[in-house]
Amino acid sequence: MREAFAELARRWRPIPEAFDSAGVDLCFEIPPGEDQHDGVVFERFLEGLGVHVRANIFYDPSHFVLQHLDYLAFIDTYHDRIKAFHAKDAEFRLNGRSGV
C-alpha cells in the first residue's frame, strides 16, 4: 500500500505545483469508493505531496452519510483544508424501501 500512495503522490505532485504558481487552491472531493474517500486517506495523500499548501478539500456532506462519517466532526478536524463546498438538500431517512 505504501508503494501505491508513493506512486499516487508522484503522479499528482506536479498539479499542486502548477496551481501554486498560479496562486490558486486545488481541492479534492472525498466521495465513497474513490482514491480519496476519507480523512485518513487524504492525510496519507497530503503527506505524500509534502503537505502542499495548495492541496485542499472540496467538502460535500452528502457523501459522509454513505460512508457513516460524522460530517460536523470532519469540519472540526479539517477546517483549515476545506476551501470549497457543495451545499444541497440531503437528509437521511432510514426506511425499508429506499436508500440514500
Q: Any overview of this molecule?
A:
Strand 1, helix 3 and strand 2 form a beta-alpha-beta unit. The mean pLDDT is 87. The protein contains 5 helices and 3 strands. The protein has 100 residues and is an alpha/beta fold. It has a 3-stranded parallel sheet with strand order 1-2-3.
Strand content: 5-15%
Specify the structural class. alpha/beta
Whole-angstrom Rg = 15 Å
What level of helicity do the residues show? 40-55%
Shape: globular
Low-confidence stretches: none
Order of helices and strands: HHEHEHHE
Number of helical segments with 4 or more residues? 5
Largest sheet: 3 strands, parallel
Q: How far is it from the N-terminal to the C-terminal residue, by CA?
A: 30 Å
Name the strands of the widest sheet in spatial order: 1-2-3
Number of E-state strands: 3
User: For the residues shown, what is the average pLDDT?
Assistant: 87
Short characterization:
This protein is an alpha/beta fold. The protein is 44% helix and 13% strand.
